[in-house]
């Protein structure tokens, strides 16, 4: 409100003074202008005092000298104009550079307040501060573990994403240590407290965030950086003009045209325009300081879970045991898992529904906490969960080895006691992650670091796919903060995360970016930038805007100061009196503000605008990919069985593969080649842009024909021994090419469809 009052007073003084002069009351008009000048002088002096207390002397000192000098030499109109410029400039600066409070209220509100402590053999609710070491506690399903402790009985299935960022629940047995702040995602269990609430892990996270918040310093204004050389130069020129001419009015004229209105107006105008522009992309930047810092960042640190990955388990593969069909395995497992609230069960059911499977209603369900669930499905006893058999077949051992190498969670499916298959789940990489990282590098980021609480082998696998420079895995919240601080010593650093565990690291970075759409509220509050949509590529959009905004702001300030220097030289020789200088300064202000408002327009940036027809084509073929992915597993399943099943059965499998290839896959590839790729070539500006993908199409067609030729040679009895090696190699090769090709298309092309088509042309 004070800023608005200041502006109203400045406008009122200038208008009233001008009106009085027009009606011939010049003396009264001068009084009004002088009053406006005096009113502006009070806050300007306060700003200088505040700067001096903070150990700096900014360009506001020039404004104080100009206002004081205008009063001293009775150049009241010039003083009133300067007052108006200062008032409007401060108001714009307040709007553009105001930073959001990092209150972290979400973190505090989530902290456990009660615990279920055993008293007289039964659990009773008590305040968490009353828990002491050695107390026996019950942790009901869905509640937060109140203090650090160890599991006493049962199996604890814990959602640790708030502390470690791990998307998949982790199981703990009796005697295992567990941390406070994690959520019981399974059945109720008992624990023994090993620490009080004040000593526990979660309280430490809160305390760490508070310390970092308290130690965060605000960004200096752009104007203050110019002051390092502009202020001394102005004083030297004004003093020299006075000394040589003996006329104080010349010094005042120099100070008037030197008043840093281009800085106080143009820079905030550019930054406010940039903030408006980022908001159109669904990116909320909490202040001009954050936007400016984002525009000069050179290092980006990314959390894994929920940032580079989707943040929850997804079915990656359904591997059928010999004699079983993968689709049937998934259908039976999902039918049983319909009755479970487990996050993994939900992923299995979701995968079945995405593939259009009809799920029968299970009967006689029975859940074994910490193990799995079984039920009757169509008269067969189906079990879904951990492997039950004491021994393991060679096939099962191979699947366990594969899951370990892939960092996948396994869900085993047995039917009437016989292993039918295994479902593998992983936290999948975001489809737009690869493209976004490439865009960020194009925008000036030269170092990309992954920072995660997840296992090293899982993090390294994702880093290899995405081309990340450095991986810091298995990090605690304290370790994440240390990692961010170390990177910030090297270069201006951006940290991107979405979990509660990321809040301290976000606050420690030069710019913290929260995936706010699905992330914890605390991360959004601790961050300087919040992505309100589930799109990592919006960060690249924001950096494009930030860099362009910073460039325009510096350009506007530089041009404004250059023009002011020219006017100062003219004023110093007596050719520009204070009143005329004030009007010249006003003209300079208008020019640089108009230039600054260019930041409202779209940037050329690093993104690609997708027109409506191409957008629809991409969406169409993306949907076809979703439908074609599950049948791809048939190719590998047939390859796995070659040599282990009779020739007739191998022939039947090959016929199914060839039917899928000829009727579904190859028509899809041909349609891409003739419809999608030409459109993409036009979009990307070069026919060679899709050449490597076309080469993959040719290889897919070649391998499909080779498999078909093998089937022709096999005759009615099935392939002979001399064909098996080449058949196996052809099938595995086709599966590998298709898997890679699908991944490349989804990352390079289909990731362009994560939002609506761009509504406007890029700036030229």
Automatic annotation (TrEMBL):
<dbReference type="InterPro" id="IPR051014">
    <property type="entry name" value="Cation_Transport_ATPase_IB"/>
</dbReference>
<dbReference type="GO" id="GO:0046872">
    <property type="term" value="F:metal ion binding"/>
</dbReference>
<dbReference type="InterPro" id="IPR027256">
    <property type="entry name" value="P-typ_ATPase_IB"/>
</dbReference>
<keyword id="KW-0472">Membrane</keyword>
<keyword id="KW-0479">Metal-binding</keyword>
<dbReference type="InterPro" id="IPR023298">
    <property type="entry name" value="ATPase_P-typ_TM_dom_sf"/>
</dbReference>
<feature type="transmembrane region" description="Helical">
    <location>
        <begin position="552"/>
        <end position="576"/>
    </location>
</feature>
<dbReference type="InterPro" id="IPR018303">
    <property type="entry name" value="ATPase_P-typ_P_site"/>
</dbReference>
<feature type="domain" description="Hemerythrin-like">
    <location>
        <begin position="618"/>
        <end position="751"/>
    </location>
</feature>
<comment type="similarity">
    <text>Belongs to the cation transport ATPase (P-type) (TC 3.A.3) family. Type IB subfamily.</text>
</comment>
<dbReference type="InterPro" id="IPR001757">
    <property type="entry name" value="P_typ_ATPase"/>
</dbReference>
<dbReference type="InterPro" id="IPR036412">
    <property type="entry name" value="HAD-like_sf"/>
</dbReference>
<dbReference type="InterPro" id="IPR059000">
    <property type="entry name" value="ATPase_P-type_domA"/>
</dbReference>
<dbReference type="GO" id="GO:0005524">
    <property type="term" value="F:ATP binding"/>
</dbReference>
<dbReference type="InterPro" id="IPR023214">
    <property type="entry name" value="HAD_sf"/>
</dbReference>
<dbReference type="GO" id="GO:0016887">
    <property type="term" value="F:ATP hydrolysis activity"/>
</dbReference>
<feature type="domain" description="P-type ATPase A">
    <location>
        <begin position="111"/>
        <end position="209"/>
    </location>
</feature>
<keyword id="KW-1133">Transmembrane helix</keyword>
<dbReference type="Pfam" id="PF00122">
    <property type="entry name" value="E1-E2_ATPase"/>
</dbReference>
<dbReference type="GO" id="GO:0019829">
    <property type="term" value="F:ATPase-coupled monoatomic cation transmembrane transporter activity"/>
</dbReference>
<dbReference type="Pfam" id="PF01814">
    <property type="entry name" value="Hemerythrin"/>
</dbReference>
<dbReference type="GO" id="GO:0005886">
    <property type="term" value="C:plasma membrane"/>
</dbReference>
<feature type="transmembrane region" description="Helical">
    <location>
        <begin position="251"/>
        <end position="271"/>
    </location>
</feature>
<keyword id="KW-0547">Nucleotide-binding</keyword>
<feature type="transmembrane region" description="Helical">
    <location>
        <begin position="76"/>
        <end position="92"/>
    </location>
</feature>
<dbReference type="Pfam" id="PF00702">
    <property type="entry name" value="Hydrolase"/>
</dbReference>
<keyword id="KW-0812">Transmembrane</keyword>
<protein>
    <submittedName>
        <fullName>Heavy metal translocating P-type ATPase</fullName>
    </submittedName>
</protein>
<dbReference type="InterPro" id="IPR023299">
    <property type="entry name" value="ATPase_P-typ_cyto_dom_N"/>
</dbReference>
<dbReference type="InterPro" id="IPR008250">
    <property type="entry name" value="ATPase_P-typ_transduc_dom_A_sf"/>
</dbReference>
<feature type="transmembrane region" description="Helical">
    <location>
        <begin position="226"/>
        <end position="245"/>
    </location>
</feature>
<dbReference type="GO" id="GO:0015086">
    <property type="term" value="F:cadmium ion transmembrane transporter activity"/>
</dbReference>
<keyword id="KW-1003">Cell membrane</keyword>
<dbReference type="InterPro" id="IPR012312">
    <property type="entry name" value="Hemerythrin-like"/>
</dbReference>
<keyword id="KW-0067">ATP-binding</keyword>
């Amino acid at each position: 409100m004070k800023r608005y009052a200041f502006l109203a007073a400045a406008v009122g003084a200038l208008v009233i003074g001008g009106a009085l002069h027009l009606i011939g009351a010049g003396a009264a008009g001068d009084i009004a202008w002088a009053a406006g000048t005096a009113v502006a002088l009070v806050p300007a002096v306060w700003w200088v005092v505040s700067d001096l207390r903070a150990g700096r002397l900014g360009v506001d000192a020039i404004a104080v000298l100009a206002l004081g000098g205008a009063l001293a030499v009775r150049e009241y109109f010039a003083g009133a104009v300067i007052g108006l410029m200062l008032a409007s400039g401060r108001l714009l600066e307040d709007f553009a550079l105001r930073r959001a409070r990092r209150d972290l209220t979400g973190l505090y509100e989530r902290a456990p307040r009660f615990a279920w402590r055993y008293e007289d053999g039964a659990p009773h609710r008590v305040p968490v501060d009353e828990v002491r070491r050695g107390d026996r506690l019950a942790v009901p399903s869905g509640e937060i573990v109140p203090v650090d402790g160890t599991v006493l009985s049962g199996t604890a299935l814990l959602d640790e994403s708030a502390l470690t960022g791990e998307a998949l629940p982790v199981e703990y047995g009796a005697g295992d240590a567990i941390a406070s702040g994690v959520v019981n995602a399974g059945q109720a269990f008992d624990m023994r407290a090993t620490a009080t609430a004040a000593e526990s892990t979660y309280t430490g996270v809160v305390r760490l965030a508070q310390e970092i918040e308290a130690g965060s310093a605000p960004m200096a204004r752009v104007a203050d950086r110019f002051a390092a050389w502009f202020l001394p130069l102005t004083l030297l020129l004004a003093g020299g003009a006075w000394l040589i001419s003996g006329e104080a009015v010349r010094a005042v004229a120099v100070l008037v045209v030197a008043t840093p209105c281009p800085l106080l107006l143009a820079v905030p105008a550019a930054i406010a325009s940039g903030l408006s522009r980022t908001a159109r992309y669904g990116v909320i930047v909490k202040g001009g300081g954050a936007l400016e810092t984002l525009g000069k960042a050179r290092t980006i640190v990314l959390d894994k879970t929920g940032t580079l990955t989707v943040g929850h388990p997804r079915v990656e593969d359904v591997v059928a045991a010999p004699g079983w069909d993968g689709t049937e395995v998934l259908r039976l497992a999902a039918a049983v898992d319909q009755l479970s609230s487990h996050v993994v069960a939900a992923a299995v059911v979701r995968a079945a529904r995405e593939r259009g499977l009809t799920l029968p209603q299970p009967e006689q369900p029975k859940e074994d906490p910490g193990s799995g669930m079984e039920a009757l499905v169509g008269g067969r006893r189906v079990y879904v969960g951990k492997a039950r058999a004491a021994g393991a077949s060679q096939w099962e051992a191979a699947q366990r080895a594969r899951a370990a190498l892939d960092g996948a969670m396994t869900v085993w499916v047995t039917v009437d006691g016989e292993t039918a298959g295994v479902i593998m789940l992983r936290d999948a990489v975001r489809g737009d992650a690869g493209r976004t990282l490439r865009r960020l590098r194009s925008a000036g980021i030269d170092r990309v670091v992954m920072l995660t609480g997840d296992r090293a082998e899982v993090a390294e696998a994702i880093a290899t796919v995405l081309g990340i420079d450095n991986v810091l895995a298995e990090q605690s919240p304290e370790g994440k903060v240390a990692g961010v601080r170390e990177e910030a010593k090297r270069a201006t650093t951006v940290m991107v995360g979405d979990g509660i565990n990321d809040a301290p690291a976000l606050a420690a970075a030069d710019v913290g970016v929260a995936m706010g759409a699905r992330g914890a509220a605390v991360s959004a509050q601790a961050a300087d930038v919040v992505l309100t949509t589930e799109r990592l590529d919006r960060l690249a959009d924001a950096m494009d805007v930030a860099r362009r905004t910073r460039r325009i702001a510096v350009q506007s300030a530089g041009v404004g100061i250059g023009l002011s220097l020219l006017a100062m030289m003219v004023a110093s020789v007596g050719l520009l009196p204070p009143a005329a200088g004030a009007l010249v300064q006003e003209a300079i202000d208008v020019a640089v503000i108009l230039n600054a408002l260019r930041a409202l327009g779209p940037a050329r940036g690093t993104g690609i605008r997708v027109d409506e027809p191409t957008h629809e084509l991409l969406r169409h073929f993306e949907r076809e990919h979703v439908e074609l992915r599950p049948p791809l597993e048939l190719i590998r399943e047939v390859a796995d069985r070659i040599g282990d099943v009779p020739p007739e059965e191998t022939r039947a499998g090959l016929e199914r593969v060839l039917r899928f290839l000829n009727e579904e896959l190859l028509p899809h590839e041909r349609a891409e080649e003739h419809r999608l790729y030409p459109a993409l070539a036009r979009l990307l500006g070069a026919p060679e842009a899709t050449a490597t993908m076309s080469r993959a199409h040719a290889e897919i067609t070649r391998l499909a024909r080779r498999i078909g030729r093998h089937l022709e040679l096999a005759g009615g009895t099935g392939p002979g021994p001399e064909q098996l090696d080449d058949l196996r190699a052809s099938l595995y090769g086709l599966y590998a090419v298709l898997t890679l090709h699908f991944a490349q298309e989804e990352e390079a092309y289909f990731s362009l469809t994560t939002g609506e088509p761009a509504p406007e042309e890029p700036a030229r």
